[in-house]
Design brief:
The structure holds 2 protein chains of 2 kinds. By secondary structure, chain A is α/β, with parallel strands linked by helices. Helices cover 22% and strands 22% of the residues of chain A. In chain A, a hairpin with a 7-residue loop joins strand 10 and strand 11. Helices cover 50% and strands 12% of the residues of chain B. The two termini of chain B are 39 Å apart. Chain B has a 6-stranded parallel β-sheet with strand order 1-10-7-4-2-3, with helices on both faces. Chain B has a 4-stranded mixed β-sheet with strand order 8-5-6-9. Chain B has a two-stranded antiparallel sheet with strand order 11-12. The chains are: A alpha/beta, B alpha/beta. The interface between A and B is large, with 78 and 102 residues. Bound molecules: iron/sulfur cluster (SF4). Chain B: This is Iron-sulfur cluster-binding protein.
Chain lengths: 227, 495
């Protein structure tokens, strides 16, 4: 077996590396080599409202559709988005507050599919939409980050369906920058950073939306201050 | 199915052929110029680009100077999180490990997400020999695979194909690989992307094993990072039961926090975006979400040889953003295939001779595939002084000297004089479009080295403040060649 200390390839690679580094002074410890971090931790000072506005602008720049709602309007908004899409089957992971989708389901002819381990990729492929929350959003880059926490589900449920509706609580879930985002995230969780719908520039460098991930990304900014 | 670069003609011959191909040249020119302009705008958005670049270079140097330490930490943390780490000293070892791991699952096919390291090792051919079919899933890689072709750009491997050619390939070849292209396919990019979506989806949904590369590995946490656009990476990284990642040892960074530098530099430098559409980060395995088995294959394959070269070591900082390709006048004219490896352009010209040694004509000619204009250094987000490394490698080719080859310190003999003159002269002829004018300009520049400001004054400042001007190399190729052809090359020339 490989991967353990008696692996000859491992010993060989490590020995080569150590020989290659003969010029590094013996007293230099890992971490001694200086890293000047003179770069900015955020690019500009913003109020909470400006931060949210920048997030919206950057999301739209990469062709996500952005909606705003207070808690009271959210159910109607989500129902409308799913109806407009003609969604009949919608995946909803555990932890999505039931009131969000109070208007969907009964009577609307929409089947809510829970994200269970038994949900196969084939079944998932026949789902029309997915509604999730997120861990945080990054204003400067227009990025949503999902970490598998409550209301986010397994990574595959935001990948296979063609329509993703993601709810961001603003302003509390919005950070300015990538450095701030990393500081808030837990590396031991599986993380998915999403900046706009999937895209490719592989054909003569034209950005084309939608290759394998959801081709439509709708973001709802849920205003925590509104009723 | 997968061709390799083995037996490629030396750079000048391959390049001359490419230069004759008008379609290829037009495709390349249009593509590199488009991406170049967009990139400049994306970079200009960050006032602290120069500081990010300095930090990135320093983080990579910090890692490389203690690479053994950081690899052991990485191994420990990946293992603790449920992954298994394997070590491969060379390409064959890596291919054997991956083949065995796939066999152990009982599967006969794998899906792959862009991994230059597995192109470097020739994994697809090795798997095929073992009766395992590998499906490339990047749109561009798919184009390359269907066309039985070789990639020609780090980021856009099918940059040498235009949409009409892609349509033809899809129409004629998709059926042989799985779901055929839809009837009446046109060459609209959106339609071509849709055809790829349908063709690949059935493969993703049934795949049990995936092979990937990675952009970064965090020693402190054991986290791997894949940066992508299309979503095929997410498919490969999350749907299959077994994930095998083959990653060069130099992709390590010490700390989680270090990602804040690279995640700002890489998307802007490579695709000219604030952020690429998808980035996946995973640490070992997670119960109930994603693959239940994760294998990391750490690949040396010449990297420790490059590490042993104090001048060449900086090459290992490379984050494969491909910015240096898009600004390179030689790449634009010669095309990616002329470089004879998965690493084309300026980075290929310095990396390939270090990974493989300089014993054969292709590797000997690569350091000459440059006009030393310095544009590659100027755009490089990790500040690799490519002209400096090129000059250093030229010297090794011409004058011989000490080098580490497959872990052994060796004295390299000077290249044969005739072979060398041919290689260098033809490379130079190709490089220098207007030899006289360029010669004058270069001479002037080199002679006044030390007098050049690192920042442009006045109105140019806003732009150049974010980037260093290219430093002037010690000696131009022409001066160097004039000085050494009867001397350096001649001394051991008949070896
Ligand atoms: S050498 Fe620098 S510019 Fe070229 S691909 Fe590597 S990181 Fe990018």
């Amino acid at each position: 077996m490989t991967g353990r200390p008696h692996d000859p390839a491992r010993e060989r690679v490590l020995a080569r590396i150590r020989r290659a580094l003969a010029d590094v002074p013996r007293h230099e410890r890992p971490g001694d080599h200086p890293v000047p971090r003179a770069y900015a931790l955020t690019h500009g000072e913003r109020t909470a409202a400006e931060r949210v506005a920048l997030l919206a602008a950057h999301l739209e720049d990469y062709r996500a559709t952005v909606h705003r709602a207070g808690a009271a309007e959210l159910p109607e908004l989500l129902t409308g988005l799913l109806r407009r899409r003609g969604a009949r089957r919608v995946v909803v992971p555990a932890g999505v507050p039931p009131e969000w989708l109070a208007g969907v389901g009964a009577g609307a002819g929409v089947e809510m599919v829970p994200d269970t381990p038994g949900l196969t990729t084939g079944e998932l492929d026949r789902v029309d939409s997915v509604v999730t929350g997120c861990a945080l959003a990054v204003a400067e880059t227009g990025t949503l980050v999902l970490d598998g926490g409550p209301g986010q589900g397994r990574r595959r449920i935001t990948l296979v369906p063609d329509h993703h509706v993601c709810v961001v609580r603003v302003p509390s879930q919005v950070v300015d920058s990538v450095p701030q985002a990393l500081g808030r995230l837990d590396p031991l969780r599986p993380l998915t950073w999403i900046s706009g719908p999937s895209a490719t520039s592989d054909i003569e460098l034209d950005r084309v939306e939608g290759v394998h991930g959801p081709r439509t990304l709708e973001v709802v900014l849920l205003d925590e201050a509104a009723p | 199915m997968s061709r390799t670069y083995v037996g490629m003609p030396a750079f000048p011959r391959a390049a001359a052929r490419a230069v004759d191909d008008a379609v290829l040249r037009a495709n390349l020119r249009r593509a590199t110029h488009t991406i170049r302009d967009r990139r400049a705008a994306a970079v200009a958005e960050l006032a602290d680009w120069a500081q990010l670049r300095t930090a990135a270079a320093a983080i990579k140097d910090r890692t490389l100077r203690h690479l053994d330490h950081y690899l052991l930490r990485l191994e420990e943390n990946v293992t603790r999180a449920g992954g298994t780490v394997h070590w491969a000293a060379d390409a064959d070892e890596a291919n054997r490990i991956v083949t065995r791991l796939v066999r152990d699952t009982g599967e006969r096919e794998v899906v792959k997400v862009k991994s230059m390291t597995t192109q470097e090792t020739g994994l697809n051919a090795a798997l095929e020999e073992a009766g395992i079919r590998a499906y490339e899933t990047d749109l561009a890689e798919l184009v390359v695979q269907l066309g039985d072709d070789l990639p020609s750009h780090l980021l856009v491997p099918a940059i040498h194909r235009n949409r009409a050619e892609i349509r033809e390939l899809f129409r004629d070849r998709m059926g042989a690989w799985g779901r055929p292209a839809p009837e009446g396919l046109t060459d609209r990019p959106a339609e071509l992307a849709e055809a790829a979506r349908l063709h690949l989806r059935e493969k993703f949904l049934r795949a049990k094993v995936a092979v990937s590369g990675a952009n970064f590995m965090v020693a402190e946490t054991g986290t791997l990072v894949v940066v992508e656009s299309e979503g095929n990476g997410r498919m490969c990284l999350t749907l299959p039961e077994t994930l095998i990642s083959v990653v060069g040892i130099e992709k390590t960074v010490p700390a989680w926090r270090d990602l804040e530098v690279f995640l700002q530099l890489l998307p802007r430098s490579s695709t000219a975006e604030r952020m690429n559409p998808y980035t996946t980060m995973w640490t070992g395995t997670t119960d109930g979400d994603g693959p239940s088995a994760f294998h990391l294959v750490l690949l040396d394959n010449g990297r420790s040889d490059a590490l042993a070269d104090v001048t060449g070591r900086q090459t290992l900082r490379c984050i494969r953003c491909s910015a240096c390709l898009n600004v390179c006048p030689v790449y634009e004219r010669a095309g990616g295939h002329a470089y004879g490896s998965p690493y084309p352009g300026p980075i290929g010209a310095v990396l390939t001779p270090q990974l493989r040694g300089t014993a054969s004509p292709l590797e000997q000619s690569l350091p000459f595939a440059s006009s030393l204009c310095g544009a590659c250094y100027e755009v490089c987000p990790v500040a690799i002084d490519i002209p400096e490394v090129l000059l250093h490698l030229r010297e090794r080719v011409v004058e011989g000297g000490e080098a580490t080859v497959r872990g052994v310190r060796t004295v390299v003999r000077p290249a044969r004089r005739r072979a060398l003159e041919g290689a260098a002269a033809r490379a130079a002829g190709l490089v220098l479009d207007h030899p006289a004018a360029l010669r004058r300009a270069q001479r002037l520049l080199y002679r006044t080295r030390g007098l050049h400001p690192r920042r442009l004054p006045g109105p140019g400042r806003a732009w150049s403040a974010a980037r260093d001007l290219p430093p002037v190399p010690e000696e131009s190729f022409r001066d160097w060649w004039a000085r050494t052809r009867g001397d350096g090359a001649g001394r051991g020339g008949t070896a």
